[in-house]
Amino acid sequence: MSDLPVHLRTSEHGEATGNTVYAQVGGMQTFETLCTKFYDRVQQDEVMWPMYPQDDLEGAIWRLSRFLGQYFGGPATYSSVRGHPRLRMRHVAFHINPDARDRWLRHMTEAVDEMDFAPAIRATMLDYFDRAATAMVNTFEPTPNASDNSR
Ligand code: HEM
């Protein structure tokens, strides 16, 4: 059943294999593509990129795409490898002020918009990303050494 083309997997055709967002967008490959597009943008961002593991971009794409795939109804691969998400706790080490939140959300929104998702899927994702990114804010201090980030 999972080999069905995406349009046959949606419940409106009565052929649903599960009406999760995960199934409707075509499974893990789609989340990997989305996260690759997201990280393409993060790499261009002089505030965000220094926070990320520069030598493990593939690992970062793997972690984010497995988490999102799981969150949106796919297999629990993220939790079986990384444990309980506890996302806010995992982000405490990073300096996430409202500017970082806005940057994360802007890069993710642009990545979503490159994917040509159905409007309801797009809205569901952006609603979640907006709330999740706001929940990750852990400081109102300005970005430290913002002007020296190119070092
Ligand atoms: C608000 C701004 C955010 C910033 C600045 C930020 C930054 C980071 C950084 C620097 C990492 C480490 C990269 C890695 O090794 O995987 C990370 C990991 C991660 N982030 Fe975020 N993040 C933000 C928001 C979010 C949101 C909204 C989500 C979920 C919707 C999210 C999900 C994750 C996940 C799943 C990981 C991997 C955790 C792990 O297993 O270690 N992040 N984030």
Automatic annotation (TrEMBL):
The keyword Metal-binding applies. Keywords: Heme, Iron, Metal-binding, Transport. CDD domains: TrHb2_Mt-trHbO-like_O. The keyword Magnesium does not apply. Gene3D superfamilies: Globins (1.10.490.10). InterPro entries: GlbO/GLB3-like, Globin-like_sf, Globin/Proto, Hemoglobin_trunc. SUPFAM superfamilies: Globin-like. Belongs to the truncated hemoglobin family. Group II subfamily. This is Globin.
